[in-house]
Structure formats: C-alpha cells, structure tokens
Sequence to fold (807 residues):
Amino acid sequence: MLRSNQRTVDLSYRGRITLLPRMLPLLVLIAVGCNKADVDKMVEQVQQQTQVVQQEVAKVVPVGSVQLSLQGDVKAQSCTASLIVIGDGRPNVIQIRSYPSMQFEAFPSIFFQGTTNAGSYQELVGKTLSGEMFVAIDNAANVWQSDASTGASVTFSAVDGSELVGSFGTVSMVNPEGKTTSTSGGFRALMDAL
Amino acid sequence: MSLYVTLRRSPVCLLAGKVLCSICIGVFWAPCVRAEDPSIAKPNIMIPLHGLMEDAKPIYEQAIKDDEACTKLYAQIKKMGNNAATAGKAVGQLAMLHKRLKRNAERLVDFGESAGAELLARYAVHRAAFEDCFNNYTGLPNVQPVKSKAIALLQKNIQKRKQKASDAAEAAANDPIAAEVILDKGLDEFEEVAGILAPTERGPFAEYNDVEANLRPMAKAARETAVNQEITRQSAKVSNEINTYVQDVQKAIATTKMGTLTYADKSMDCLEFADQMFREGFAHQAHLQRVIALQYLVRSPGTYFNGPPPALDPQWNERLHKLRIDIGSAAMKLIEADSQQMPPDKALTRLSQYAKVFGRYAHRTEADEWTKVLDEAIVAAAKKLGAGSKVQSYQKATSDLLAWRERFAAKQEVVLSGKTPTLAAVIAESTKKDLKDPGYIQSLPGGKPSPQFYNATYELLPLMGSKLPKNTPAIVKNVVHMDTDKPVWVSRWDNYIYARLPTSLVKIEPAKALERALLVDETHAPLSVRAASAIHTAEMGEGLVVGATIQEVFVEGAITRLVSLPDIAAPFVGINYPVVFPRDQVPMTASLRASVSPKWYRHRYFVVTAMGN
Fold:
C-alpha cells in the first residue's frame, strides 16, 4: 500500500487503489433494494474516501513531477500546470503537462486538458474537473488516450508554494489498438504564470 | 443511425459564391466529350475524348465504327466456309478496315487523345486477327483464280490510282489534311482488292507510295501545329485571367475601408471578399493545372515519334507557385488592411470570422504553410487592437491538444492500416499476369511508374477483375472533398491512380467533439486558423486516410482526366505541385480510378471506425 512518508510511491497494479472494492458495498445495497438516503450516504462516503486517497497520492509525488499507474509505473520528472484564461466568455482551460512546452517534450509524456470556471489556481483547489488525457510512454506506438465516452478527471488538492498539487481519478484509457486499461496517479505541477 | 455532414455547414453565401464563381470563370473551358469510362464490369467501353481539338470527333467516331466492324468481320470470317471468292472479299475488307483504324488512331494521338492510344492497342489485336485470316485464306482451295482476278482489277485501275495520287499531291501543298482525305479514299479502295495479296503480289502496284511518304509527315505536322496553337490560345487565356485576378484582388484590398472594399465594381464586406478571393483563386489553380497538363502535348511538329518534344516551358510551374504565394499574401494584406479601422470591441469577433474563412482553405497548402502565416497575421492584427493576449491564449489552449490528438490518430492509422497495401500498390499488382509480368504500370525512362496503354483495356480489365475480387481492401490516402456542396470525395491525383468515394463519408459526431474540445460553441468561433481548419476539415472530410474496399476500377486517359478537370476539382490536383507526365508518352498514359467503399477513416485529429450504413 501507500507509504506516505517516502518521496516515491508504489503505484503498480498490486498497490493501486481502485474504486471497485469501495464501490462493492454500495452495489450490494443497491442490489438488495436499500432506500435512497442510505445509498446517497454511501455515495458520499465513497467520494470522500476517494478524495482523501487521491490527495494522499498527490502529496507523495516528488516536486515538479507526475506519476501514474498505467500497466506499470509511469514517472515523468517534470510537470507544469497552465491555467489559460482566454477572457472572451469561453471557459478557462487547465493543462497538466509533463513538459514545459511541446518542443522540450521528453518521454514518458503526459497531458491533461480540462475546462473550468476557476480564474486562479487557488480557486481550483478542492475541485474535480473532467477533460481529455493522453499518455505517451515512448515515441513509438505506446500511446494512450482517455476513453472519449468517459473522459478523464482530475482533483486539485492544494496550491503549495509554486506548485499545484492534484491527482487523477481512475481514468479509463484506450490505446491505438483499442485495448483498454485504467490509470490513476498524482502530480505536483509548477504553475505557469497566469 | 448514422449522421452525415453534407450541407449542414454550408452557408448560403458559400453556395451563392460558388454559383457566381462558376459564372465568372468556371465555364470558360471548352466542354469536353466526357462519357462513361471502361471498367471491370464494362471493359469494352471506349476511352472517351477530351476534345481539345474539335476535328478529333469525326475521326474518333469513324475509328470506333471500324473497330467494331473489324471485330464483327473477324468473327464472320472464322465461320466462313471454303468459298475463296466470298472469303476473299471479307478478308480484303478486313485489311482495309484495320489499316484505316490505324491511320485514324494515329491522328487521334496527334491530337493528344488517349483514345488514339487505346485504338492503336485495339488495332494491334485486329492486325493479329487479319494475319490469322490472311494465312488461313491463302491455304484455301481455289484461291489463285480469285487472286488473279484481283491483280487484273488492280492493273485495270492503274491510271485511276495515278490520277488520285496526283490529285492528293497537288492538294497537299495547300491543305495536307484535305489531301489525306483524297489519298485515304484511294487507299481504302486499293486495300479492299489488294488485301488478299502477298507483298510480292501487290508490290508492283505502288502508285500511292510516294505521295503517301510525302503527305503523311505534312499532315501530321499540320495537326500538331494546330494542337500547339490551341494550347497556346488556351494558355494565354488562363494567363491573362490570372493576371487580371491578381491585379483585381490587389486593387480591391487597397480600397478597404471600415470593413468593406470594392471588388469587380461591387462593394462588399471584407469577409465576403476573402471567401470569394479564395474560391476564385482555387478555380484559377484548376485552370493552371490543366494548362500545365496541356504543355506536355506541345510538340515539335512532325517529330512526334521521331524526335524529342520541345523542352517544357517552365513558366507554368512557376505561375502555380506564384499563384499560391499571391493568394496567401493577399489574405495577409487583407486582414492587415481591415484591422486598421476595426473597432477594438469588435476585434475578437471579426478576427474569429477571418479565421473561419481562412480555415476553409488553409489546409490545402502543404506543411501548414498558409495556416502558419495566417495565424501570425491574426495575432498581429489582434495585438494592434488590444486583443493579442486573448488570441494567443486561445492558440495556447488548443495547440497542444491538437498535437496530441494528431499523434494518437496517426498511431491508430498505423494499427488500422496494418499490412493492408495502398490503393496504388493493390492496383499495380492486379495488372500483372504473373510474377514475371511487369504489368500495366511501368517506369518509363526519366519518369515514375505510370499506367500505359500497352494492351487494349478490354484485355487488361478482365485480368484486373480476376486479381481484384470485390471488396479487396486498400488504403486510400489524401482523400479530399471537391469544391461543391454535393457529397463528392476523391483521393488526390497520385501517380495516375486515384479513388472516388461514391457515398457520404463524413460522420458528424467526431467533428462535434472536436469542436467542443476546441472551445467552440454557437457564440464562440475558433480564434485560430489551425482550429478553424481542423473543424472545417472534420466537417467536410478533407485530408483523410481511408481504409476502404475496392468495388470497381475504371480506366481513363490520364491527359483526358486532367484536360477535362472541372473547376470544383481544384483539391484533386492541389496547389503545391504541378501535375507531371512521362515526357514523351502523354496520350499513351492511362489513369486508373477506383470506386471504393469506406470502412474507416482517419482525420488529422481523430479516427472513425464505425462506417456501417
């Protein structure tokens, strides 16, 4: 399981926390016909527990890096967050990238983009956003994209100095061959100037 | 249920503009004689004319009649009995018919018609048939009395033939084409009688030999001169029209004031003008590609088979390059001129409208040439108007996402393509009888592999049919949508092989998803040409790679395809590169068009796999 006192974290398949075990009691309750209040309470508990775990994940990721579990550990030694405010009535855009700009991309390479109404990094804290996520393990065919039907989600847990801390929810990913897997992980991203 | 994009995004002004464009410049080209092309299902259909020279039509019609008559007569002769007189008459007629066919086929080649090359291939079949008939005939009993009678008739008419030869020689000085008519009539009459005679038997009757030897090169040179003159006329017309277009565009931009300008004596909004300028520009591009193709038909009169053709005039390739530069720079100047008096509070809306117009056309240049410079022009205008940061933020918010989508789609394309060969490879392979056979598509000296009319298409197409069972898979690259509101997609002209996709191709949902990803909704248009172009191409089905199955293959004359290119086909040949032919073999070069059914397609930024009905 997680060892939060270390600067790295085991995010391999065996150590990965997935939502399924936590969802099982809820599914059983639904199956046996529990009332709506009970179900709502369970949902809330699961969400809170999930958020706590995600925040824990984010805290143990090294500064300025992003780590995922995607058929094994995927660790990028650079991470940048950009909150892009266009300012013409469109939603703002948040990007989490494993590179400062495309021309300096290294592999593995990770990219998340979602939209938000938050106008500052601080306003993102505590929010969960959905968006598109890509992971290129290498420059060959080992590329993954978040499932178009479910998308990817990210939860921001803190602004820590010049860093934005957060974690990816369990994201269903698909590769060019159509194979699917799930990923989760966290990041401590250096924030671009607004 | 499947949804397709067809007319959904086409604004009324676009349609009106296309109609106007057609009226202004679209119909100048002489209508060609286009008909159905031979295919695997219908291999006997004759290659149509392009009709550069009107004189080709009666020659073509006569040649088709003779081709059919040869086939019919050969079948009849094969069924004939041993009556030497009856068979002799038929063999003599076959001799006349197949030789007349050859003369007319060569004339069509002089006129730059691929139909002539096809008819020459058919002539070779008829000549073999004639030789078969002739050999059989000479083995028949009682042939000698028939031959003697023929020789006697030829002797009787020596003076008549001398007179005809003299008439033809006299006419040749003024009008070699008319002189050929006199000569050919005499030759046809002669051949019907002499066709059953061996060379030694007919040798003494050589009244037409001298005049024919003199007249043929003269007539051929006259035809080639006429072709050269027609090409010069059409090229000059296109050249003048392009000069006028470029000047008018420049003048119009100079009149820009408060978002409007005057073009062709008409006041119009700058955005309306921008769209019209591109549309007209691409119609001129199609004209120019036709002119470039025509240059390959220019000959040194009289040296078609005996000497090299003149060097290609480089000016036309340069004109194509210049046209691309002129259109791109005019678009940049337009936005610069319009931004001078643009109200800052309207700047974002106005610039996004420019991005949308430019996005309809920018993808047609290679390596994002126009996309890059026009996006820079939009940013420069935005900066002047205090909206630079907004435009740059938008571009930052969309560029990485597009790059990632492109990367993923490219990998998906590789997986979906697998080991499926390209359309060109599949078709080239299908023209080979066996492993040793070089096939129909061969490299000529100094040229890329190109299909040639080596054999009659009715011999080739059944072979292709046996090698290409229906639904043979192939990868079709560079699929573009024609400049029309109709659902017509083709793959770009590529080494004489291309595909036509006969049904609606584009799915709407991925285009909508791309639009959402690029932060576009009913009130917010793209703020970059790159994004606008991504959405436009997704909606219209531009620049696709398509995994398809081959349904049918058609044979066309390559020059026929290009000379009869409609204005809407500008994307078919593209604006970056001039069309190229094997230098000496233009009418001999075929073009193979496949009709294909799409199974999946890759847009630059996404892949669609479910292509069922």
